[in-house]
Amino acid sequence: MAGMNSTAPQSSRIVAVTGAGTGIGRATARAFAAEGAHVVAVGRRSEPLGDTAAGHDRITPLSVDITAEDGPERIVRAVSEAYGRLDVLVNNAGIVRSGALGTLTPQLIAPQIATNLVAPVLLAQAALPLLEASGGVIVNVSTSVGQRAWPGNSVYAATKAALELLTRSWAVELAPHGVRVVAVAPGAVDTPIGEHQGLAPERMAAVREWQLAHTPLARIGRPEEVAWAITQLAAPAASFVTGVVLPVDGGAVVA
Asked: What pTM did the predictor assign?
């Protein structure tokens, strides 16, 4: 089996993280770097990526739009040219465009499908030769609400539910090639994803109130808590774990 049970230690691994300019992506890039891995931090905007890498000499910013036609190939080419290998791919980038049925437009739907679903498929596909060679890991970042109803955000939740199905399907497809595929499903986490979709402060406060009411631990999570789960699932010690979707949501899914 190609690349099965890679013995590459944490400190020598090469990791690519999308959506690494803020939130969970930034925390994940820094968590892997703290373990000694070399991290390629991918995002659309160079300034936030620079902030992610500031003070972390093992993080290399790479400004690429993952939804661009040549985006996946550019990312994989940059990783290959710089390091010659890839051990972990974290598909974290995601966008939300709220809208209840009856108000949805192609302009609301298309970017979410492109970023949250199509881009991870094409990036994983482009990275597959490198991942097979290293016995690598794909970590998809879903959402715990993808397993429940989310009124007003059904398209976003649907893209993440699809990403979970891809996780399970790829885990079976790629197991003979020595590649593991896992996912984390964050709940309410303190990230700027709401601000990025242009929510007014009062609307964001209402969202947080709803999230807290549906979170048994009664608090908002931190990006670092999700990053911990990602690094643990991607660790060599988790070599017998594949196809799993791990909620990191304060109990929201089971409530």
From this structure: 0.92
